[in-house]
Structure formats: structure tokens, C-alpha cells
């Protein structure tokens, strides 16, 4: 992926514009950069037109603002990505729920590449 996303992504409407500091994209946590990257790569692969993502993000942002939900930018981004992945049949809500529970339980530690019956360090 190039350093700068294409112009449709880089220049979204002000209400949903990417967070920047001194012109550079800002990610507060690794998951935010991953969610950003996944959304961009899926668009580039033709899974959905960017218009669908940006409209979904605008709707999610409006709903959060209207409902008084203080969510962060990338939380809304992730919700939009999740909704599109489900709508496009990339994942079912059930699969997503299982995977989310696995990650929350620490079953997918990035640094642990051992099999289910192996003990780390053995």
C-alpha cells in the first residue's frame, strides 16, 4: 500500500476526514492502523466502492453524534468496516462474534505462533 491513500480516501468530507497531525495520518493504537489498512485494501480489491464505505462512515458518525455516543473515529471506522464485511458476505455475524471472543480471550496473541497443543517455549 502506498504511503498516502488515494485521493478519494485522503480527501473525505470534513465530518469523516481521517485524523491527521502535521499532515500525517494519526493512529493511537495498532488496531486502528490495521482497520484502516483492511478497509483500503478491500476497496482496492474491488470488494466495495469507496463511496459505500464513506457513506457508511458518515451514517455511523451521524448516529454516534445524534445518540450522544462518545466513540472515537476509528471505532466508527471499524463499525463501518464490520457492517460492510457482513453485507458483502465476507463474514457472518456469528463468525465475527466467535473471532471477537477469541481475540478478547487472548487466543490470538500476535507473538504466539504455536499450535493448539504446543506449550510456548517448549
Detail the poorly predicted runs.
Answer: 112-122
Q: What does the average pLDDT come to?
A: 84
Q: Classify the beta-strand content into a percent band.
A: under 5%
Strand order of the largest sheet: 1-2
Give the SSE order as H and E letters: HEEHHHH
- Specify the helix fraction band: 40-55%
Biggest sheet, open or closed, and with what strands and sense? 2 strands, antiparallel
Q: Evaluate the radius of gyration.
A: 17 Å
- Please tell me what the overall shape is: globular
Strand-pairing-aware structural class: mainly alpha
Distance between the termini: 37 Å
Q: How many individual β-strands?
A: 2
Number of helices: 5
Quick summary:
The protein has 122 residues and is mostly helical. The chain has helices at residues 7-10, 30-44, 50-66, 73-87, 93-104; strands at 20-21, 24-25.
What would you say this structure looks like, in words?
There is one protein chain. By secondary structure, the protein is mainly alpha-helical. The chain has a domain at 35-102. Helix content is 52%, strand content 3%. The chain has a two-stranded antiparallel ribbon. Helix 2 (30-44) packs parallel to helix 4 (73-87) and helix 3 packs across helix 4 (73-87). The N and C termini lie far apart (37 Å). Residues 112-122 have low confidence and may be disordered.
